Amino acid sequence: MEYTINNLSKLAGVSTRTLRYYDEIGLLKPKRISSYGYRIYGEEEVNLLQQILFYKELDLPLEKIKSVIHSEEFDCVEALHEHKKNLLERQKQIEKLLNNIDRTLLSLKGEEEMSNKEKFEGFKKDIIKKNEEKYGKEIREKYGDKRVNKSNKKFAGLSEEEYNESERIRIEINEKLLEAMKINDPSNELAMEVVRLHKKWLEYFGTYPPQAHLNLGQIYVDDPRFTKYYDENVKQGAAKFLSMSIGAFYNAIFNENTWQWVIQDK
Known about the structure:
This protein is mostly helical. Helix content is 71%, strand content 3%. The protein has a three-stranded antiparallel β-sheet with strand order 1-3-2. Strand 2 and strand 3 (39-41) form a beta hairpin. Helix 3 (43-57) crosses helix 4 (62-69), helix 9 packs across helix 12 and helix 10 (210-222) crosses helix 11 (224-233). The radius of gyration is 23 Å and the shape is globular.
C-alpha cells in the first residue's frame, strides 16, 4: 500500500512539515515522487518511520537515529525487541513515580506515613534512568561499566540534603563560569575556582582523578549534547572555556616532566 504525505501524516500522527524535513536531511526519503510532484511512501518507509518515532521516544537525536536505521547492520526485528525492553524499563520507572505520588498524597492526607527519604528515592532513580538513556552509551564506552555503575550507585545513595547541595553547587558553577568568561582567560583565578567547584560537584557522582577530570572536560567539547547544555545554560562557548580551564588547572599543578595532558582547541 502507498501513502501520500498527507495520508502518512494522518496515519502516523506527525506533521507534513516534519516529514518534509526528514526527507531534506535524508532521514526518511519517500519511495518515489509522483508525476505531479507529490511524495509517495510505501510499506518500507512506513516501517522506517515507526522506528524513527520509537527512537525519538528514547530521546535520541535525529543524526544518531539516521546513522542507526541506515546502517548495514540495522535489523528491524532486533530493534523492536530493544525498543520493547527500553519501554518496559521506562514503564517500571513511571509506575514507581506514580506509586510515589499516590503514597505522597495519602501521606499529605494523614492516611499513610511516608518519610522524606522515600519521597526522594523515585526522583533520583528517574534522573539516573534519563542520564543512562541520554549519555549512557558514550560514557560507558569512555569510562567502563564498573565506574558508571559505581557512580549511579553513589548518586542513588545521596541524602536529600546532599542532593540539594549538589544542585546548589551546579548552579554556582554556571554563575561563576559566566563571570570567568568575561575575563577571557581560561586560567584566571575565577576560572580556577570554577574548576575546584566542578571537582567538588563531581564527588557526588563518583571519583574523578585528574586524567578522568580532563577526559570529562574534553567530552564537554566533543559531545554536542554536553556542549549544548553549557552553551544554553551559561553562554555560547562555555563548554570549550570550561574544558580549557580544567586543562589549565592541572597544568598549574603538574609540570610537564611529570604530567602529560592534551586539550584540543576546537
